[in-house]
Request: fold
Amino acid sequence: MLLLNHLWIILALPLAGAAINGLCGKRWPKSAVNGVAIGSVSLAFLAVAELVREYRALAPDHAVIGDYFTWILAGPFRVDFALQVDQLTIVMLLTVSFVGMLIHIYSTGYMAHEGGYYRFFCYLNLFMFFMLTLVMAANLVVMFVGWEGVGLCSYLLIGFWFLKKSAADAGKKAFIVTRIGDLGFTVGILLAFWTFRSVAFGAMFGAATGMQPDTMGHAGALTAICLLLFAGAIGKSAQLPLYVWLPDAMEGPTPVSALIHAATMVTAGVYMVARMNPLFSRAPAAMLVVAIVGAATALYSATIGLMQTDIKKVLAYSTVSQLGYMFLACGVGAYTAGVFHLMTHAFFKGLLFLAAGSVIHAMGGEQDMRKMGGLRKKIPVTYWTMLVATIAIAGFPPFAGFFSKDEILASAYSGPYANRILWAVGLAAAALTSFYMFRLIFLTFFGKPRYDEHKVHVHESPKSMLVPCAILAILSTVGGWFAAPKFWGGADYFKNFLDPVFASAASLAPASTLSEEAAHTLELQLSAVAVLVALAGFLVAWWFYIRKPEAPKRLAQSLHGLYTLILNKYYVDEIYAALIVRPLLWISTNVLWHVVDERVIDGAVNGAADSARGWGGQLRRLQSGNERSYASWVIIGAVGFTVLLLGLLRMGH
Amino acid sequence: MSTVPISYYLALSGILFGLGVVAFVFKRNIITIFMSIELMLNAVNLAFVAFARALGQLDGLVFVFFVIVVAAAEVAVGLAIVIMLAQNRESLNVERMNLLKF
Reply:
């Protein structure tokens, strides 16, 4: 019971790693920095594993809470620094700490020749600390601490090569854009306190249980809270319309993209929505918004992914798209499917980024797929692991992505909050996903080399990079069976495990009208459709990039307008720049800087100094150096004072 | 035995003080200015003594002793300054001693 009683140990380990590396790492050799970084994260993973064992042995029917101290106390507003563990936390903890550990190991190989080695691992450990805080938080405010902390680490790591202007700018963009969503999150926290008189999850959900979805007053407050919190998720998880920071975040080192911008941090929004399921399920309007935003993002960013030429940018848009899937799942009430897709996505998208990093490493820093090609034979391990991840994300059985994506699409089609339009959108996005992922594979690993073979010496990456890839490849292959439903021969283990967390949401959902048999038939049909669609995507990619490599160019010419539009990412960055960034800059420059700062603030300060100098210039003439003028002043003063005193005395009488 | 009323003493003290002030402001010779300061001090002394007598208290007399002691010390320092001025500037006219100004 050691860890169940001392949840803080899990947080303390990566924090200690960050502190040690941050303070001493500069003077230490790389092996010592490695030891501290990997050691602390591995110990954290072992601690999580032990925690899971203890939790399952105890099998409590509610969250285990560790309440450490009262952090904020102001009238009725009380925030404890409290951590909690329940089934949802366990899923997140295992995913975060395991994938985090693998990526730490990978980073020792990838970053081996980079400056600022200790700084990188210090940030990475700090990120683990904040991410674990986020998932273990027992109230909204502690969650917000983790939420902002991972944002900080994201900023630091995107701008890790801060001497490069594009990297520094991308870091700032990520920080500022997510901040827009965080404003909603903060207001949501306040509104939650106002509604429930508490920000602790247990108390909030307890209070929400008494609120029925159809009561107007409650529905309004709940919907507002959910939408505000979801605004935070839109920023953090890069959904429409705030997704613009994630593609730019690819300026960071590739392990950072894998850990923060694919596997863990960006999924925080999904985790938060799943955590808040007792509120969301009582606010159907908010759920619909979540589902629409998710589905729209899934399709929209998949279309951008079709045309990207930078290998990491394709994966970035793919991440945005897959996050959209997760929100679609939450929005149609399939929280289990959403969280499961979060987990499998952490495996295969983490792997895709790691493998892409391996490709970039092999190509000596080249990220443009147009300058790759034919790498299959030269870096076979990277090729095979990446292929596994691609099959998984495209949704072919029996790989991990198939089960999670299938479950999401099935819920969108026939779940309690089914919406056939959203299902169709999701299906279209699945086809595009399959297409752009195989396009990536074909462009990178097939065909003739399009790089200068005399200049670039393609070499397979070191073991420290390949072993994490291999482990993730195994998980991408078999990870889906955790959640395999009964009729696929699985035990429906994942759903049963998470059921207690989502029980309150499930109890509110409209009951299915289908018989069990009909539901199974329907699910089989839907799976078949999903697989066929993925297969279609694969075949089109094969046709375009293997069979007729000149076909894409011809298609681009015949659809020139659409092609340019998508190639330029729908000009969204330009529109934001024109509508928001430039007006803000103009106001800042011409009003805040040149008027408010220079005229008003500087004017007040300089004016005070000028008037003091002016008066001083006049008054100093009193100091004439003439003894008799001084004497006169003394006498005038004495007489004046006496007159004043006498006058006062008379008034007193 | 009839006593002189206190107002007489105060009037005399006021006249002496006023003379001192006028001399202080209008005289140019530094020694004369010095003397006018002594005149003002003694005018104040006279007022103190008169009040002490009228009120039957010793406080005023104590003040007078302090004033006399301070005046003696002041004269010692002041005359030393005057001698130095006389040696260095060969003049005792205060109007020519105005270097210390803005």
About this structure: The longest strand of chain A covers residues 64-74. Chain A touches chain B at residues 620-621, 623-628, 631-632, 635 (CB under 8 Å). Chain A has 26 helices and two strands. The mean pLDDT of chain A is 89.
